[in-house]
Amino acid sequence: MTTTSTDIPTTGGTSHKELAAWVEEVAALTTPDSIVWCDGSDEEWDRLTQKLVDAGTFVKLDRKPNSFWATSDPADVARVEDRTFICTKDAEGAGPTNHWMAPDEMKGIMSDLYRGCMKGRTMYVIPFVMGHLESDTPMYGVELTDSEYVVCSMRIMARIGSKILEKMEETDAPYVKCLHSVGAPLAEGQQDVAWPCSETKYISHFPEERMIWSFGSGYGGNALLGKKCYALRIASAMAHDEGWLAEHMLILKLTSPEGKVHFIAAAFPSACGKTNLAMIEPTIPGWKAEMVGDDIAWMRFRNGKLYAVNPENGLFGVAPGTGYPTNQNAMHAIEKGNSIFTNVARTLDGDVWWEGMTDEAPDELIDWRGDTWTPESENKAAHPNSRFCTPITQCPVTAPEFDDPNGVPISAILFGGRRKTTIPLVTEARDWNHGTFIGSTVSSETTAAAAGAVGVVRRDPMAMLPFIGYNAGDYLQHWVNLGREHADAMPKVFLVNWFRRDEDGGFAWPGFGENSRVLKWVVERLEGTGEGVETPIGTVPAEGALDVDGLDMEPGQLEQATKFDVEEWKAEIPLIEEWFAQFGDKLPQELRDELDGLKKRLDA
Ligand SMILES: Nc1nc2c(ncn2[C@@H]2O[C@H](COP(=O)(O)OP(=O)(O)OP(=O)(O)O)[C@@H](O)[C@H]2O)c(=O)[nH]1
Ligand SMILES: O=C([O-])CC(=O)C(=O)O
Ligand SMILES: [Mn+2]
């Protein structure tokens, strides 16, 4: 144990001078009782998980090895988009889709909040890298946090610890500064609560400085700053400056019965099926699917192709709806343990349960609020945004390429959302600009992944609406420009919708493993063998081109899932126009032209 010039007892330290100075500066402001530099070791995990058990934050699960159950404050259960800010010098930098505040003003407000906010707590220094340490461009970050829950979760979600710090020290490497506090200082002798947080929340990004300040929440994307804050909001701004893409996409490896391999990326909004598709168990014979990533793709050009890496090291998956029939691979991953479960229900014998895990609920549970729950209870046992946090390498279908620092060449991009109507099962874009148009107009019914109303249709460009760290008009232009500069490298683009409803309100398409039938058609289109018909919105599978062998569907269901309806699409046009209007001069001319083209084709 050493002490810094701030006289705070400290375990560990660094020769990286700029980092040492930043840590001291934050400690002087937040006044923690002690500072711990995280080494990422098993010993550290054991010590911190035990501390969380002692504090009542974690309950150790008897039925899952090395795994823990946590329930959050009921007011801290999801990303808080209305408290999320992009702090660029001028408002135009944040654009029409983000909340903006001037950097100095935000720093003033938050410095006041941070002053003394870690009193009674330990400040942890977490050196981490997003993507691989052996990458040509290692993408470092350091998170300072006063939450042991965050340290343990970051250890699963990212590559953290001494090895990272040593590599950073070699070159005094630049890194993204990630400051996090739950915002709940403890007075002398004050008893802590199981889930400390604050009513006041700010999730602030300073893209020009590559910096993140988060205050008041301990949950998910609000607090595990490597994920949405860095790997999407800050990285998207970096990618814009440097000519690459940071996207909200899963990465899937598909092997056909002939042994041909294709890598596919897919962008769906939060809680719209990325993790499930990434772990798909194909129902059609001979096809193999493996996961490279389930949430985020960083894509760079090399050798004339677009290569994608998954910057993460863990899964932060939506629990409800995950079960052996729908996603056995996720179930096998969590069986291996080493996981944190948040806001799911706990069984009396020390296991976890959530809606959709089994057809029949156990007779008695402890629900996510900590209350006794029975099948007669009116409330859900698990919160709709409850999550499992699990090492990605535990998933039986993680592809060996997950470990390739340079990633995998992408040959198709899928966009999708949750739409009861209008959007057919699968449509192929005409070309890159049309694909960008399709991405820019993705629409989806809102989910429990973010605080606020659920089930409201909103536009969610490239499934990035809450994650674009700069002006969304510039972001769309970036997509168009890359297509122009790297025309031959660009993947084919498709639009999918697993969520269309039938007349009875049920899902028209069975989804999950059956989505492999759509993937098969996509691959056939890549290889030039799949048959399609042109429609005003793009190419859809020709009659009989979608493999539905052995698929047990009610009469009319397939037609309902796949149909293109001119009238439904005409009704979309004013919504797209309204959506585009906010971008003003920033709307790329190419997308204006695409909209005009679509209108003409619909009217023809
Ligand atoms: N009907 C239907 N539901 C699906 C399908 N795929 C996923 N779901 C359900 O949609 C919900 C969210 O799925 P996930 O795969 O966790 O979504 P995600 O995009 O990874 O969500 P985030 O991790 O929040 O970004 C779960 O309840 C799934 O069971 C599908 O093909 N059909
Ligand atoms: O960031 C989170 O809290 C969880 C997540 O993956 C999402 O909302 O897309
Ligand atoms: Mn997911």
From TrEMBL:
Function recorded in the entry: Catalyzes the conversion of oxaloacetate (OAA) to phosphoenolpyruvate (PEP), the rate-limiting step in the metabolic pathway that produces glucose from lactate and other precursors derived from the citric acid cycle.
Alphabetical list of HAMAP family matching this protein: PEPCK_GTP
Similarity comment: family membership: Belongs to the phosphoenolpyruvate carboxykinase [GTP] family.
EC number: 4.1.1.32
GO cellular component, one term: cytosol
Keywords: Cytoplasm, Decarboxylase, Gluconeogenesis, GTP-binding, Kinase, Lyase, Manganese, Metal-binding, Nucleotide-binding, Pyruvate, Transferase
Cofactor notes: Binds 1 Mn(2+) ion per subunit.
Boundaries of every Phosphoenolpyruvate carboxykinase C-terminal P-loop domain copy: 244-601
Active site: 272
Superkingdom, taxonomy of origin: Bacteria
Main location: cytoplasm
Protein's cellular compartments: Cytoplasm
Involved pathway(s): Carbohydrate biosynthesis; gluconeogenesis
GO biological processes: cellular response to glucose stimulus; gluconeogenesis; glycerol biosynthetic process from pyruvate; oxaloacetate metabolic process; propionate catabolic process; response to lipid; response to starvation
Origin organism lineage: Bacteria, Bacillati, Actinomycetota, Actinomycetes, Micrococcales
Record text on subunit structure and interactions: Monomer.
Binding site for substrate: 79, 219-221, 270, 385-387
Encoding gene per record: pckG
One Gene Ontology MF term: kinase activity
Residues given in the record as GTP binding sites: 271-276, 387, 418, 512-515
Protein species of origin: Mobilicoccus pelagius NBRC 104925
Cofactor(s) for this UniProt protein: Mn(2+)
CDD domains to which the protein is assigned, alphabetical: PEPCK_GTP
Residues noted as binding Mn(2+) in the record, renumbered to the chain: 228, 248, 295
Catalytic activity: oxaloacetate + GTP = phosphoenolpyruvate + GDP + CO2
Residue ranges of every copy of the Phosphoenolpyruvate carboxykinase GTP-utilising N-terminal domain listed in the record: 22-240
The protein, known as: Phosphoenolpyruvate carboxykinase [GTP]
Enzyme category, top tier: lyase
